[in-house]
Amino acid sequence: MAEPGNPIFENCVFAFWQSRDLPDATIDQSSQLHNTLENHAGEISPNDDDGKINLEDVTHIISTTSDFPQYSEARRNMISIVKPAWITQSLLKNKQAQPRPYTPDPNLIFSDITISCADIPTGDKDAIIGAVLAMGGAESSSLTRLTTHICALTVDHPKCQQALEKGLKCKMVLPHWLTMNRFDDCLKLGKRIDERPYCLPDPEIFKMKPEDTLAIPDSDRLLGASSPHPDTLPISTVDLRHLDVFRNKKVMISKDLEINGRHLKVLEDLIVNGDGSITNSVHNADMFICHWREGRDYTFASRAGIDVGNLSWLYHLITHNEWTSPLRRLLHYPIPREGIPGFEKFRITLSNYGGEARTYLENLVNVSGAEFTKSMKQDNTHLITARKSSEKCDAAEDWNIDMVNHLWIEESYAKCEVQKLSNPRYNHFPPRTNLGEIIGQTQFDPAVLESRYFPRDPTPSPSDPKPLRRPVMHEKDRNQPSLKISEDDEEEEEKKERRPAKAKKTAATRPRSKSTTALVSTPAPNRRISAEKENDTPSSTRSAKDKARANIHGLSADIALYEKEKKRKGPIWGGERAANNIDKQKSLKRRSSSPANLASEGEEFSEEEDTRTPKRQRTSKPANTLPPIGIRLLVTSYQGWIGNTNKEDADRKKLRELGVHVVQDPSNCTHLAAPAIVRTKKFLAALASGPTIVRSEFIDACIKDGKVPDATAFVLKDTTNEKRFGLKLKDAVARAKANKRSILRHVPIYCTEDIPNKPETYKDIVQANGGTFTLFRGKAFAKKVKPEEDEGGNEPVYLLSGTKEKEKVMWPIFREEAKKGNMVPRIVSTDWILNTAITQQLESSDDYLLDDEC
């Protein structure tokens, strides 16, 4: 261990990046870490008032994450970015340690691993050490307190016994984890997978089959990043606490988010109270919040290097009060309005994912442009699964449906194009592993986004921040014999010469054929002279002579037609006048229904129609263009489609041709079709939006008549079920419109895992009504501080439960945790949430209590 005063960090200038894992108390001037660096000749460079690091001065940045604004710039400046463990290791070695094993770079998946091999054959040992070092790890021949893994065949080796005796916190793993299978798994997937199935002394891979039950892992990293457009603010922000993340930042909130006035006011107050400001001009903004990847503001902000994110990203900043890049999580960045090209023909379902991971993938499928289906049918195109073991997986193999892991859709979305299924990364499923443990680690590549959505325009508009100008080659320069012109410059010049001809088109003038264009734009004399001069000196790269021949050959048909025009009796037309007069005469003749006129037109212009017709067909509106969507219809319990996939698909196509789009997202529907008032998940979730509810016969009428009837004639009336559920459907819809999907806002609702009809059913209903839904597994949940002004008692917290013994065991734990959090426990049956959703009134829970002690 280094003695105080030993100049280990001489000539080193350090800066810190504060985060949740490296809080301010750990790095302030009075902290032990700060004093340790200074005691060993290190210098500390403070961050400026905006929290930025002065990259010109520092040599090392201490950070636990690569997710900070200046990370890429620091890498370009060759500044070492290391975790705090680097300092400890340097002190132990009494010299500066190698920075690579301590980098927070997520691509070096073994960066925090120090491995020591035990009874491993020499060949395998070399392979293991080389692999670990290549992926950012370190190796130690002897066992130390910094050793994280011992690679051994049994626990009988002296190293393993020594670790057990000294109580070292290192894991003993089989070499399979790194060589035979597991390391291959990590390399194929590009992610680090949990090593627990290979841990000694009782490895799971030796005692269990790959298809045996495996718990679905938590997906906490997706909290706040599973939806691109959350409905409500997180509960933790209701106190409007002071935020540091917006300090000295100007934020612009785009209108395409469609946020109502009250909601927008809350967001603006949070930003302003956090020493930030709101701007209505993207030119002044530091952050731009929008929903779609389109528009001038989005393009300008992206080109100018402004942080561009969506509403989910803004909520994440507010919730954690910590900056994170909107490119780090896929659903924190604005979504493409048309999806990813190619995904519109896919029907995708999921298997072996749960919780936030499942919600995240459902939304990712939808924003990619594919259709998500909860159940799997033979017309599904893809199954995304976390492991190759489930009924859906078996059916996918029988039906020849493509089976992939989530990396396929994540990387397709990140790279903005459909990835090839032949890539082994996408169809690899390690044994005894649920790949949900590595979900959400894929990030955007800024270069890909730029090339797809905001490329630099060679002829920029005045609004572009930094116009990219290309040198323009003038005709007088082209005539210089000593001047070499590149192929790209020639093509750019030709494009610019063609633009004036295109600009002369008007709404009353049809697109001209090649013949007309030939009469209008004769090749410039300078270009012919230039071509002749170039012919004198043959070029080895691109022959101007061949190009001239090709141009003459392309004009041969136009020249022949021009000769025919000269022989025509009557006035000889040429240039634009000819095209305009022809179009005018043909337009006038088409307005007449006289057969004689039609015949005359066919005779007079028979020679030109051969060349004009194909052009007109290419530019005319396609016959199969779909009408705009007038009704977004959600369908539930429709008997005509149950068990009849072919009819459903055919009817959906017919409805779409009428402007009726059948949707699956309850929050996105304008109309709901049902045979009666039913307590299905779709009905209750869609009711929260206050849609027009029609009878299922509405669908039959559309299909039969070939047109959309008046929806008011099909409004659902069901007095029987109204009496049964104690409501008036008309009043429930009116309340839903007034509630705006927020009747359960700020209401914490938990649910047991073994509840009837599965937790996912109730999750969708709760979230559709603005509530927060969490599975209760007997663990502590977040404490909620009682507001000082609330003198009427603590707020309730609900647990949806059945009456199985396995669920009843959870009740005392829930009661205890609720009391610790200053909340009143209410353990209720599922009828409470179903009736609340269907009446759109927050029902009293007294009649639904299952636990007498509540």
How would you describe this structure to a colleague?
With 854 residues, the protein is α/β, with parallel strands linked by helices. Among the domains are: 13-102, 3-Layer(aba) Sandwich (Rossmann fold); 114-207, BRCT domain (Rossmann fold, 3-Layer(aba) Sandwich); 229-332, Rossmann fold (3-Layer(aba) Sandwich); 343-451, 3-Layer(aba) Sandwich (Rossmann fold); 631-717, BRCT domain (Rossmann fold), CATH 3.40.50; 748-848, Rossmann fold. The chain has 32 helices and 24 strands. A four-stranded parallel beta sheet has the order 2-1-3-4. A four-stranded parallel beta sheet has the order 6-5-7-8, with helices on one face. Strands 10-9-11-12 form a four-stranded parallel beta sheet, with helices on both faces. Helix 5 (122-134) links the parallel strand 5 and strand 6. Helix 12 crosses helix 14. The longest helix has 24 residues, at 544-567. It is globular, with a radius of gyration of 34 Å. The two termini are 58 Å apart. Mean pLDDT is 77; it is low at 179-183, 466-542, 569-584, 586-623 and 782-793.
Q: Tell me the distance between the termini.
A: 58 Å
CATH domain class name of the domain at 343-451: Alpha Beta
Total number of helical segments? 32
Outline the low-pLDDT stretches. Answer: 179-183, 466-542, 569-584, 586-623, 782-793
User: Mind describing the biggest β-sheet?
Assistant: 4 strands, parallel
Percentage beta strand: 5-15%
Instruction: Please identify which CATH superfamily of the domain at 343-451 we are dealing with.
Output: BRCT domain
- CATH fold title of the domain at 343-451: Rossmann fold
Q: Roughly what is the average pLDDT, rounded to an integer?
A: 77
- State the total count of DSSP E strands: 24
CATH architecture of the domain at 343-451: 3-Layer(aba) Sandwich
| Fraction in helix | 25-40%
Oligomeric assembly: single chain
Structural class: alpha/beta
The global form is globular
Cross-sheet strand order for the largest sheet? 2-1-3-4
The radius of gyration computed from the alpha-carbon positions, rounded to a whole number of angstroms, is 34 Å
GO biological process, one term: double-strand break repair
GO cellular component, one term: Cul8-RING ubiquitin ligase complex
Protein name: BRCT-containing protein
Biased composition (Polar residues): 515-524
